[in-house]
Amino acid sequence: MLKKERQREILKVVETTGKAEVEALSVRFDVTEMTIRRDLDELEKRGLLERVHGGALIQNDRRGSESPVYDRLLERLEIKRRIGLAAAGLIKDGEKIFLGSGSTTMAVAEALANHRNLTVYTNALNVADALFHYPVKVIILGGSLRRTELSLIGDLTEKSIQGIRVDKVIIGIRGIDPVKGLTSDHMEELLTDQAILSISKTIIVVADQSKIGRVAAIRTAPITAINKLVTNKENQKDVLQAIRQMGVEVLEV
């Protein structure tokens, strides 16, 4: 098992039970206790757990770091509608696209009603549901269900993604900063998100002002990994200008 995979499994143990012991993790993953201690130290540095003598505890704010996707659908509805329409306008009939998980990407899906001959790959159940009655081909990737996001992640998802090439990838992100890049809060999503970023030469991030300038715990990719950012005009102009200076096209709507 690779280190990142082991750390993702360790985090699942901590999030499920609230704690984990070094000795038990060493037996479970068949590695030395020193290796487990290093893993726990790295996860603590990323803000994903709290180290204690003999093991680790879940961070007090981990479970509430981001509200579930269906709760977020009710936040900034008009702004997300504008972003969704603008991002949909970047998609041409006949293209193959990937739509990631999140409430803003769902707004993009809802804006695709008049597109024709699209093929949409997604790992998000709410995105697939939004496209149900539209004249587009929808391909849902398998994987482990992350219930709060209605997204499918993990090894199976990543293996499925490896065989895909699309014209455009459209994703949401927890934080986007010109220096720290794209960041998220969940270690278990890291490899899935990085796999998604590898399947197209055109990467579009859709994000409202709450994500701009924000830095979350885990660095997913540098800002230069994306081509376009679609956001709302009620925003931090200095941060958007810094993002532009990094070579990213910024569309304010």
Give the strand line-up of the largest sheet.
6-5-4-9-12-14-15
Helix content: 25-40%
* Helix run count: 10
CATH class annotation of the largest domain: Alpha Beta
Shape designation: globular
Alpha-carbon Rg, integer: 19 Å
Strand runs, count = 15
Mean pLDDT, to the nearest integer, reads 90
CATH architecture of the largest domain: 3-Layer(aba) Sandwich
Question: How would you explain this protein's 3D organization?
Answer:
This protein has 253 residues and is of the alpha/beta class. It folds into two domains: 3-58, Arc Repressor Mutant, subunit A, CATH 1.10.10.10; 69-252, Rossmann fold, CATH 3.40.50.1360. It has helices spanning 3-17, 22-29, 33-45, 69-72, 77-88, 103-110, 125-130, 155-162, 187-196, 237-245; strands at 19-21, 49-52, 55-58, 96-99, 119-122, 137-140, 144-146, 151-153, 168-171, 175-177, 181-184, 203-206, 218-221, 228-231, 249-252. The radius of gyration is 19 Å and the shape is globular. The protein starts with a helix and ends with a strand. The mean pLDDT is 90.
Write the layout of secondary structure elements.
Layout: H1 3-17, E1 19-21, H2 22-29, H3 33-45, E2 49-52, E3 55-58, H4 69-72, H5 77-88, E4 96-99, H6 103-110, E5 119-122, H7 125-130, E6 137-140, E7 144-146, E8 151-153, H8 155-162, E9 168-171, E10 175-177, E11 181-184, H9 187-196, E12 203-206, E13 218-221, E14 228-231, H10 237-245, E15 249-252
Parallel strand pairs: 4-5, 4-9, 5-6, 9-12, 12-14, 14-15
Antiparallel strand pairs: 1-3, 2-3, 7-8, 10-11, 11-13
Helix pairs in contact: 2-3, 5-6, 8-9
